[in-house]
Each structure stands twice: as C-alpha cells, then as structure tokens.
Amino acid sequence: MTGINMVKRKLATHDNLKITIEQTGDKFHVKESSTFRSIEINFTLGVTFEYTLADGTELSGAWNQEGDTLKGVFTRKDNGKPLTTIRIIQGDELVQSYSYEGVDAKRIFKRS
C-alpha cells in the first residue's frame, strides 16, 4: 500500500470491518460495521449518491454491475479526483479493490 499514510494503514489493519450486502433487483442495502463506525447504505445501480469514508472523505458517485462484478466510480468532493472501487465474490471471499491517483489497494473479506 505504497502512497497510503502510515496512520491510515495501521487503522485499516485493525478496524475489523464486516460488510453485509443484500440485493433486490437493482437495489442494494449494505451494512458496514467496524471498530470505528457502523453505517447502512442504500443505493440503486447507476444512480448517483453521496458517501463518506471512515476517514471523513466525502464522495459522490454510483455503483454499476458488470457481470458478477460491482464497480463503483466516485469523485472526491474535496479535490474532484476519481476513486474507483471493484467488488467481486470469488468462492467464499469478497475481494474489494481500490484505485486512487495511481495507488491500488486490495482487501479480502471472508464469508462468516
């Protein structure tokens, strides 16, 4: 995770983030629960919505489904730069990848 602030790296490794995703047609309900916060997000594929990251960064964007992959393209409100997120289920894992300003990160969640 080069390019990521050391404090943010340490926090990310200890946040115990758990994600629950429920889908009904093109509507999604996502629960994110961690050591630092718990939130629930509702969105519809292709419809722009507002979201705030755990570090307080505000985003605006939308999720789209491409086959078995969810792709989120968001714009940071503070600097207008894009952040792309990919979520794909592989076996019993949810693999979530991020790309921002040439820095790529990946996080793997195990099904419980």
UniProtKB/TrEMBL annotation:
InterPro entries: Calycin, Fatty_acid-bd, ILBP, Lipocln_cytosolic_FA-bd_dom
Pfam families: Lipocalin
Domain Lipocalin/cytosolic fatty-acid binding: 3-110
Family: Belongs to the calycin superfamily. Fatty-acid binding protein (FABP) family.
Protein name (database record): Fatty acid-binding protein, intestinal
Organism: Xenotaenia resolanae
Phylogenetic lineage: Eukaryota, Metazoa, Chordata, Craniata, Vertebrata
Gene of this entry: FABP2_1
